[in-house]
């Protein structure tokens, strides 16, 4: 079908205000927010509801038009960027903004896929409940995109990834059929787990248009601390101690190396260290509870025990909300500091917690020997085994040299991750960034199973082509 005819038919389906046709308006849709991938499209379709998504997909299925689903376009792996052919339609869900239902008795919330994560959090708060998924991009990322990439964040230690927070989905299939799986059930043993199948599939199997999400009682108390440690094994041991002493109250356990903190202090305005001395590693840990009494005492007891045992060399406990926010700004400022300091080659990896220290030791030695001039920026959610093991290149590095170093660093880091039974993508997804590497680290059987599912649901390969597989 010719492009003008396709646009005319799309106009009938979603209206003139549901299409973006001019280059200026499309600029935010055809380029990822990191600026790594740039594509083009003849049309951005913006349906208002699942019925319109269904109609668009029926048309694209009939005309064999490839579709790139897009939420907030805040991904880290190029999973929502079209190619440069101009033949792919971008289907944006950013007009699907309805909170369909909040059920505080069942502790669930049903929302359109285009609702911002921050809006889901606010709707939960308004009902006296808590939605725990928390990301740096929560003011611009959508819940549909969070589910499509199985987003992680800072509260995975206690509450799990996005997959663990969804009970049911509404999905438009590649041929336009709508699967309504919006059931707020904790138990439903009636066949294959289709909800989990679509979560993390990065828009390659269907388009998530709605979700039933888990809510939790709102926390009434919070205790936050910042500690310095001599070694990473000491922090892993501290994690075990805190889990035993504090149970589910331990909500966050975030690590950064000394080089990370130095970057933040140098490049983020207003940042200051809570501790007087320098330490090889730092940890931000937090306790929350629905009953605030005794939480501060529990934190003081836990921190004191860690100091006495030598797991921490120093520790500061936030005495008020402002101090807690200042500690979190140090952790959240790493990405901003990296951008200002140079060009980072990023590795979003997952390992068994018991093997984190071994990986960091072996990877550090290997990179120091092969790339002695390149500093490592190592931080992450070590409570769930997720490291952001980045390598900083100079800001003026030439593009060919950046590409060469990226390939060499990826091979060295990811080979070691695979040897330790880890994953090369913990929470950022595969997208375009890790697509070609996937075959190296997944078995032929695993890749074949994924392709079988893809062909069964999307035989014409119209859904987000060139991503994941």
Description:
The chain contains 16 helices and 19 strands. It is an alpha+beta fold and 469 residues long. It folds into 4 domains: 3-92, Uridine Diphospho-n-acetylenolpyruvylglucosamine Reductase, domain 2 (2-Layer Sandwich); 99-217, Uridine Diphospho-n-acetylenolpyruvylglucosamine Reductase, domain 3 (2-Layer Sandwich), CATH 3.30.465.10; 221-337, 2-Layer Sandwich (Alpha-Beta Plaits); 342-420, Alpha-Beta Plaits, CATH 3.30.70.2740. The strands form 4 sheets. Strands 12, 13, 14, 15, 16, 17, 18 and 19 form an 8-stranded antiparallel beta sheet that branches. Helix 1 packs antiparallel against helix 3 (50-63), helix 9 (258-267) crosses helix 12 and helix 13 (356-370) packs antiparallel against helix 14. The two termini are 26 Å apart. 45% of the residues are buried. The mean pLDDT is 96. Residues 37-218 form the FAD-binding PCMH-type domain. Keywords: FAD, Flavoprotein. Belongs to the FAD-binding oxidoreductase/transferase type 4 family.
Question: What are the SSEs and their pairings?
Answer:
Layout: H1 3-14, E1 19-20, H2 23-30, E2 44-45, H3 50-63, E3 67-70, E4 89-92, E5 99-103, E6 108-112, H4 117-126, E7 129-130, H5 143-148, H6 156-159, E8 166-172, E9 178-181, H7 194-198, E10 207-214, E11 216-217, E12 221-229, H8 232-246, E13 250-257, H9 258-267, E14 281-289, H10 295-309, E15 314-317, H11 321-332, H12 334-341, E16 343-345, E17 348-350, H13 356-370, E18 376-381, E19 386-393, H14 399-419, H15 435-441, H16 444-457
Parallel strand pairs: 2-4, 3-4
Antiparallel strand pairs: 1-2, 5-6, 6-10, 7-11, 8-9, 8-10, 12-14, 12-15, 13-14, 13-18, 16-19, 17-19, 18-19
Helix pairs in contact: 1-3, 9-12, 13-14
């Amino acid at each position: 079908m010719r492009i003008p005819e396709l646009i005319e038919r799309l106009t009938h389906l979603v209206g003139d205000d549901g299409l973006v046709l001019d280059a200026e308006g499309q600029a935010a849709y055809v380029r990822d927010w990191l600026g790594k991938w740039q594509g083009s499209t003849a049309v951005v379709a913006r349906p208002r509801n699942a019925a319109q998504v269904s109609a668009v997909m029926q048309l694209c299925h009939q005309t064999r038009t490839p579709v790139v689903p897009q939420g907030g376009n805040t991904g880290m792996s190029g999973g929502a960027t079209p190619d440069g052919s101009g033949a792919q339609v971008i289907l944006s869900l950013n007009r699907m903004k309805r909170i369909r239902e909040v059920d505080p008795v069942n502790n669930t919330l049903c929302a359109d896929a285009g609702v911002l994560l921050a809006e889901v959090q606010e709707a939960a708060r308004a009902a006296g409940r808590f939605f725990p998924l928390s990301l740096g991009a929560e003011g611009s990322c959508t819940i549909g995109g969070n589910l499509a990439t199985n987003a992680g964040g800072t509260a995975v230690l206690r509450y799990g990834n996005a997959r663990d927070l969804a009970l049911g989905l509404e999905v438009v299939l590649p041929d336009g059929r709508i699967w309504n799986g919006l059931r707020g059930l904790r138990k439903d043993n009636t066949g294959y787990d289709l909800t989990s199948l679509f979560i993390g599939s990065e828009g390659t199997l269907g388009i998530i248009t709605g979700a039933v999400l888990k809510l939790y009682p709102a926390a009434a108390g919070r205790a936050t601390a910042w500690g310095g440690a001599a070694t990473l094994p000491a922090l892993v041991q501290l994690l075990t101690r805190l889990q035993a002493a504090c149970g589910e109250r331990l909500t966050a356990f975030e690590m950064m190396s000394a080089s990370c903190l130095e970057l933040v202090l140098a490049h983020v305005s207003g940042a200051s260290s809570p501790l007087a001395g320098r330490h090889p590693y730092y940890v931000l840990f937090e306790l929350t509870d629905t009953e605030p009494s005794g939480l501060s005492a529990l934190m003081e007891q836990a921190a004191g025990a860690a100091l006495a045992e030598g797991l921490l060399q120093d520790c500061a406990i936030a005495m008020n909300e402002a101090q807690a926010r200042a500690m979190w700004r140090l952790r959240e400022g790493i990405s901003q500091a990296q951008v200002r300091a140079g060009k980072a080659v990023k590795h979003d990896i997952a390992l068994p917690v018991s093997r984190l220290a071994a990986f960091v030791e072996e990877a550090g030695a290997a990179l120091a020997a092969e790339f002695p001039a390149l500093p490592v920026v190592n931080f992450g959610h070590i409570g769930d085994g997720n490291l952001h093991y980045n390598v900083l290149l100079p800001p003026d590095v030439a593009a060919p040299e950046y590409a060469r170093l990226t390939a060499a660093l990826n091979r060295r880091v990811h080979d070691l991750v695979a040897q330790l039974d880890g994953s090369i993508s913990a929470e950022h997804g595969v997208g375009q960034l890790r697509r070609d590497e996937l075959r190296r680290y997944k078995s032929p059987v695993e890749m074949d199973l994924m392709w079988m599912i893809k062909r069964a649901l999307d035989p014409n390969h119209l859904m987000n082509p060139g991503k994941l597989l």
